[in-house]
Q: What sequence folds into this?
């Protein structure tokens, strides 16, 4: 009897990948206290370092989604993993602003296809009624990476300096790369631990489409992309500036600011996990994807907005921690339903569709850190950047009802086949 199910092995591997990729992304936020001082960078320049990752990340969202749909998640993530591991090590070797920017650009190139490729893998390895849970769990592991990064990076910096933190993260990435090569198979039936009982509950294999309807698919995913941009603005504001926020706004030392930042990010871990469970429960109970996805996203975004509002009127350390933690909790509750939408709408093109959606967050990753850094430099206020989050979460709550997850996307070129043959997803 095989005690460890094949689907669990794959899900654990994806969880570890999400953890490592976000550890690699946000370690720079804490390490900025070291390299910012060493290279004499102001807040706007540090914001550029934060956002440099997002330029190629944005470009390769859709391209990476198409590649994963076309060539499979295994090969896509092997190539991407090697790139992001090398980029992380090179960040530790940087000798100035330009070298930091170059390393972060390479990191964005390497991680651009990771989440679309993971979504393509989930569309084959996760039953429909558990997609929200799988997305919530993997993103919860990403937030564990966020939460661990501040305290772990500070501990490493205190003994070995900021550069060593990137060398360690790069080593972890290379270890994951080896494990992925040994454990993942593109077709579930080829996995050595797969049983017939487990295979029976998975989606039937689907043919790879060489004719992606770019225009109509992009139009269909546009409302989802805009909603995810609204979420992404808050996400990247938090990931980029929360460690610095506690350090400077309340004049804390590096260790204390890291503890408070970790507390905020751990709230996101809970939000991701709970959001995935709730969206699946809502779908099972009501049978309506509109309620399980759109309504849930709208409610959580309104709660995020309400949580952040007190920051504009009160300046108290513990009030700030509570507001930021609750705001991040509710923002992360949207992840499960949001990432399930591409699989609900376009399962045959889930990698490409999720890449289109995540390009919204990638665009926010370019704009949010730099604009927030400029606002802090210009006005000397660490609270003003949250006005953008409050406004955009309100807009996202309204636009969430335009996502239409219950309406299946059909490629017009494949329509005759869709009529004659039942869809495997």
A:
């Amino acid at each position: 009897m095989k005690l460890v199910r094949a689907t669990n092995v794959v899900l654990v591997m994806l969880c570890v990948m999400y953890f490592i990729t976000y550890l690699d992304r946000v370690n720079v936020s804490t390490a900025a206290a070291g390299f910012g001082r060493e290279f004499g960078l102001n807040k706007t320049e540090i914001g550029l370092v934060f956002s440099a990752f997002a330029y190629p990340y944005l470009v390769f969202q859709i391209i990476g989604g198409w590649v994963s749909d076309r060539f499979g998640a295994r090969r896509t993530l092997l190539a991407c993993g090697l790139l992001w591991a090398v980029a992380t090590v090179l960040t530790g070797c940087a000798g100035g602003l330009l070298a930091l920017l170059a390393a972060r650009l390479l990191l964005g190139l390497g991680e651009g296809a990771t989440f679309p490729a993971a979504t393509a893998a989930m569309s084959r390895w996760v039953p429909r009624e558990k997609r929200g849970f799988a997305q919530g769990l993997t993103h919860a592991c990403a937030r564990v990476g966020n939460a661990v990064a501040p305290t772990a990076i500070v501990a490493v910096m205190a003994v070995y300096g900021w550069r060593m933190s990137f060398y360690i993260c790069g080593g972890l990435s290379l270890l994951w790369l080896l494990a992925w090569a040994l454990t993942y198979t593109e077709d579930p039936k080829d996995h050595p631990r797969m049983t017939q009982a487990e295979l029976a509950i998975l989606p039937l294999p689907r043919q790879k489409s060489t004719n992606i309807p770019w225009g109509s698919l992009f139009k269909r995913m546009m409302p989802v992309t805009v909603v995810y941009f609204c979420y992404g603005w808050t996400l990247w504001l938090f990931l980029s500036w929360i460690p610095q926020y506690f350090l400077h706004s309340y004049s804390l030392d590096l260790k204390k600011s890291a503890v408070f930042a970790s507390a905020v990010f751990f709230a996101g871990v809970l939000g991701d996990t709970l959001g995935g469970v709730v969206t699946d429960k809502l779908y099972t109970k009501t049978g309506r994807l509109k309620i399980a996805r759109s309504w849930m996203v709208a409610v959580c975004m309104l709660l995020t907005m309400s949580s952040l509002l007190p920051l504009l009127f009160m300046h108290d350390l513990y009030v700030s921690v509570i507001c930021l933690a609750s705001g991040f909790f509710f923002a992360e509750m949207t992840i499960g339903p949001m990432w399930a939408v591409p699989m609900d709408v376009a399962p045959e093109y889930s990698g490409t569709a999720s890449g289109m959606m995540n390009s919204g967050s990638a665009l926010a990753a370019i704009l949010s850190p730099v604009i927030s850094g400029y606002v802090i430099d210009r006005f000397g206020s660490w609270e003003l950047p949250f006005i953008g989050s409050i406004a955009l979460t309100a807009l996202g709550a309204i636009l969430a009802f335009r996502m239409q997850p219950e309406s299946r996307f059909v490629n017009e070129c494949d329509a005759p086949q869709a009529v004659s043959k039942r869809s495997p997803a």
